[in-house]
Every structure is written in structure tokens, then in C-alpha cells.
Amino acid sequence: MADTRRIYFCGSIRGGRDDVHVYQRIVHALRTHGTVLTEHVTHGGLTDAGETSESGDKQIHDRDLDWLQQSHAVVAEVTQPSLGVGYELGRAVDLDKPVLCLFRPESGRRLSAMIRGAADGRRFVVQDYSPDQVQSILNQFFSQI
Fold first, then answer.
1. pLDDT tens digits for range 57-83
2. What's phi and psi for 23, nearest 5 deg?
3. What would the DSSP string read from start to end of 102-122?
4. Rounded to the nearest 5°, which phi and psi values hold at 76?
5. Torsion 68-41-101-118 (CA) sign
6. Residue 11 near residue 77 (C-beta atoms within 8 A)
7. What pLDDT is stored for residue 55 in this prediction?
8. Sign of the alpha-carbon dihedral angle for 87, 145, 40, 37
9. H helix count then E strand count, the chain
10. Which one of 2, 5, 60, 71 is at 20 to 30 Å from 145 when CA atoms are compared?
């Protein structure tokens, strides 16, 4: 299934780009499990001003929602608070997609209760991690869905 699996990766864009290097590492590891539909989130040239689109925010929303609907699973790095990531996670739950949220406690931040409290250990998993644990966490998540 890894060759045909489509993965939707969520990471902050307009909420802040401080973790782009972490996103790059996660997406690199995700590629061993399938095709990442949202690799643009890892591009270093993408700033917190967001993407530019001639059609505007509506086109970005509709494109991303289409990718979300096509995906087999959603993986989100949730350490950097982001309204967009929260929205994507809510839509993923509504679409009954398996979701893995990755949070780095070393950041000193506290994860929103709306994310941590949604964890059910099956379809919505929240995992505290350090970057060196990414591959093993992904392996476990994808072996269970």
C-alpha cells in the first residue's frame, strides 16, 4: 500500500515558519510510506506570508481540501500553533481519515486541549516526540492503519 498511499501533511505556514526544518525531516520520512500531497509546506522559500495564488485564498483552500479528501491518512506537526492546521485536522476527522499529530514538548509550549483531548489512540493519535523518533513513530502509525 505504501506505493499508492496518499498522505496529507499539515504544518504551520501563516502561523509561523520556525519549524520548517522539522517539517522537512518528517516529510522525508513520510515518503517511505507513500506520496506526500502537501510537500510545499516544507519549502524553505515559503514564508509566513503564505502562498501566492492568482485565484487567492479560495483556490488554496479548495485545492488543499481536494488533497485532504484524496488522502489515505493525515500527519500533522502541531507544535507551532496554527489556525489552518487546526481547521485541516477538524476536516480530517469529519472525513474519517486516520490522523497522527506530532508534538515536541521540548518546545516549551502546551498543546491545545482540543488536539490532545481528541486523541482516541486509534483514528486520532497524538504523539509527543523528539525529531530522532520520527521514523519509528511513523512506522508504527502506518502499520496500524
1. 899 999 999 999 999 999 999 999 999
2. -60, -40
3. EE-GGGS----HHHHTT--SS
4. -125, 135
5. negative
6. yes
7. 67
8. negative
9. 5, 5
10. 60
